[in-house]
Each structure stands twice: as C-alpha cells, then as structure tokens.
C-alpha cells in the first residue's frame, strides 16, 4: 500500500506529529545497549496524535541469554560479503522463537499497553505476515575459506500481508511485529525461521509506503566509524549513497542494506538514529540521525545494487 501523501511529505520534510504523515515503521534494536523506554513513549505520543505506527523489534540479547540458560552455544557465522549473523539450527530455532515471539514481544506489548497504546503482538508467522523461502544452506567464510553450511533455519521476507496490518491500524491498534517469519519449504508448507529484524522492518515499511526509523545504540552512520563527530546527516544523491555504503561497517552494514531494500520497495525515507536519546522517534522524524531519501537509491527506474551483502539472512 502506498500512502497518498508520500510525495508531499518528501517535499515538505518529515512530519513528527499528527495524522497527516505516512505511517511510521519503527525498528527497535534488541541489543542490551538499546533502552526501549523512550521509543515506547514516542509511539504513544504519535498514536495519540493520529499517526499510524508499526513496531518491528529484534532481540538478539534475549536469544543469547536463553541459549546460555539452556546450555546451548550461540553460533555466529560470517558471510562472503563480511556480514556476521546468527546460524540457526533446529535447537537454536526453538529457543529463538521462545525468546523473540514469547518473551521480547510480550514484554514490549505490555510496555506499550501500560503507556496507553492498544498494541497487538504478532510474529511474522501470524496470518502469513512475513513470508519467504526458507534458506537451509548458507554461504559462510571459515578460516579464510568459503563453505556451504547446512541445517540453517533462516530466510528473508519476500511477501508482506499488508492487508492484515492495514486492518489493525484502521481499527486503532498498533502492531508490534517480531521474528520469526514463515519460511516456505514447498508450495504449500512452511516452518518458522529466523529473519533479520532490520530487513523485516524494511519489508513492512516498503509494503506500507511508510517512513522507516531504525533505532540503534549509536547516533547514525559515521563517515569514520570510530569517530562519532563524523555523523552523516543526510543522504539524498547517488554519490552520497555510495559514500554511505563505503562508510558502513559491521552491524551498520545490515542496517544500510535494509534501508536500501525499504526504499527500493516503496518506503518514503529511512532514518538510522539513536534509541537512547530523549524522544528518539520524534527526534529522528525531525532530522536527528542519518536520514536517507528515496532519491539516493532510486534514479528513475534504476536502483542501486545492494551487492552481495544480501547473502546475510542469518540474524534476527
């Protein structure tokens, strides 16, 4: 679904308050360093002012903590593109679902409810919200050699049930979406699989024609990853986009990749910003962080290629 006022918003800049702007999809990181309290308050503020909001969350810390309590070692792998992500075997997948769709989603919905938001918790499996093929084998680099590692339960959303989200939003509910997604193993059957929450949020934002705010534990993308004073504030041209992708390292590579996918699929803009500042979502909509315009990625009918980083479908 494309919001009819998207072009006006693009011309007039982000709209933090009120119901005249496009939907806002908020990706809330699951790392220990990310405090969700400010984001919860902002969601309540935006919803009270008539803005449609969808929250998509990660939960890597909760997954690791549960695996540790269960005596299961967390396994991370590096893809040929240099992106590190979780390898999710069958045992890990069971814990992943318990932590993500169980603990983290329930805790976040509870916080939203306590803030006055009519929040509804959903996993990507519910109603086929996030669907795509299961990837059971992934390309990894071990000891400098490229290998195929089998037994993975991962995938990237290729379809979004935006009608389900539209129905909930129209009825005044705020969807809070969690991995796993529904991984198709044949034309008629599927199974829950791990999916990267940044890319899940990107898929949702693209499907809704929304503005995507990716909240993390740094202020945005830095030109020099080791120097917070080199924040890239605005990305609106192809050259600026190339500089952005060159600067992104480590976990930020996935976020820039997700931003690209969101913009290519219909999102109006993407901002990567700090979750731990005061009013983090409103601040991001008002210009804090790194704001990436659709014009930076889409040039006529041609999109910038995402490179081989798209192999990284192994982290939630």
User: Which band does the percent of strand residues land in?
Assistant: 25-35%
CATH class: Alpha Beta
Q: Please provide the ordered H/E string of secondary-structure elements.
A: HEHEHEEHEEEEHEEHEEHHEHEEE
Uncertain runs are 1-14, 305-316
How many domains make up the 3D coordinates? 1
What would CATH call the architecture?
3-Layer(aba) Sandwich
Fraction of residues in helix: 25-40%
CATH superfamily: Acetylglutamate kinase-like
**What would the principal axes of the Cα set say about the shape?**
globular
Mean pLDDT: 89
Instruction: Give the N-terminus to C-terminus distance in angstroms.
Output: 25 Å
Helix count, DSSP H or I runs of 4 or more residues: 9
The count of β-strands is 16
Q: Radius of gyration, rounded?
A: 18 Å
Q: Might you state the CATH topology name?
A: Carbamate kinase
Major beta sheet summary: 12 strands, mixed
| SS-derived structural category | alpha/beta
GO molecular function: ATP binding; kinase activity
EC number: 2.7.2.17, 2.7.2.19
Function: Involved in both the arginine and lysine biosynthetic pathways. Phosphorylates the LysW-bound precursors glutamate (for arginine biosynthesis), respectively alpha-aminoadipate (for lysine biosynthesis).
Subcellular location: Cytoplasm
Q: How is this structure best described in words?
A:
The protein is an alpha/beta fold. The protein has one domain (19-311): Acetylglutamate kinase-like (Carbamate kinase). It is 33% helix and 27% strand. The chain is built from nine helices and 16 strands. It has helices at residues 6-12, 37-48, 60-69, 90-114, 162-170, 197-208, 238-247, 251-264, 280-285, and strands spanning 24-28, 53-57, 76-78, 84-86, 119-124, 130-142, 145-155, 159-160, 174-184, 190-193, 211-216, 234-235, 269-274, 290-293, 298-299, 302-303. The strands form three sheets. Strands 1, 2, 5, 6, 7, 8, 9, 10, 11, 12, 13 and 14 form a twelve-stranded mixed sheet that branches. A two-stranded antiparallel sheet has the order 3-4. A two-stranded antiparallel ribbon has the order 15-16. A hairpin with a 5-residue loop joins β3 and β4 (84-86). α3 (60-69) packs across α4 (90-114). 48% of the residues are buried. The model is unreliable at 1-14 and 305-316 (pLDDT under 50).
């Amino acid at each position: 679904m494309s919001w009819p006022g998207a072009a006006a918003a693009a011309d007039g800049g982000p709209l933090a308050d009120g119901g005249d702007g496009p939907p806002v999809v908020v990706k809330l990181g699951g790392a220990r360093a990310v405090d969700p309290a400010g984001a919860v308050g902002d969601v309540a503020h935006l919803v009270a002012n008539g803005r449609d909001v969808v929250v998509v969350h990660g939960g890597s810390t909760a997954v690791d903590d549960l695996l540790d309590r269960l005596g299961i070692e967390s396994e991370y792998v590096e893809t040929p593109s240099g992106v590190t992500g979780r390898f999710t075997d069958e045992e890990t997948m069971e814990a992943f679902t318990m932590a993500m769709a169980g603990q983290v989603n329930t805790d976040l919905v509870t916080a939203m409810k306590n803030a006055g938001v009519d929040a509804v918790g959903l996993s990507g499996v519910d109603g086929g919200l996030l669907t795509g093929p299961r990837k059971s084998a992934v390309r990894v680099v071990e000891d400098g050699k490229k290998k195929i590692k089998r037994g993975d339960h991962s995938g990237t959303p290729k379809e979004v049930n935006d009608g389900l989200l539209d129905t909930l939003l129209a009825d005044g509910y705020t969807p809070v979406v969690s991995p796993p997604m529904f991984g198709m193993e044949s034309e008629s059957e599927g199974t829950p699989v791990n999916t990267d929450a940044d890319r899940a949020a990107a898929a949702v934002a693209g499907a809704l024609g929304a503005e995507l705010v990716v909240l993390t534990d740094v202020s945005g993308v830095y030109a020099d990853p080791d120097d917070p004073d080199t924040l890239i504030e605005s990305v609106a041209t192809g050259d600026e986009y190339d500089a952005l992708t060159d600067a992104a390292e480590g976990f930020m590579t996935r976020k820039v990749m997700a931003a690209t996918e969101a913009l290519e699929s219909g999102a109006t803009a993407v901002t990567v910003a700090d979750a731990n500042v005061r009013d983090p979502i409103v601040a991001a909509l008002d210009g804090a962080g790194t704001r990436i315009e659709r014009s930076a990625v889409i040039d006529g009918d041609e999109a910038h290629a995402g490179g081989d980083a798209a192999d990284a479908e192994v982290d939630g």
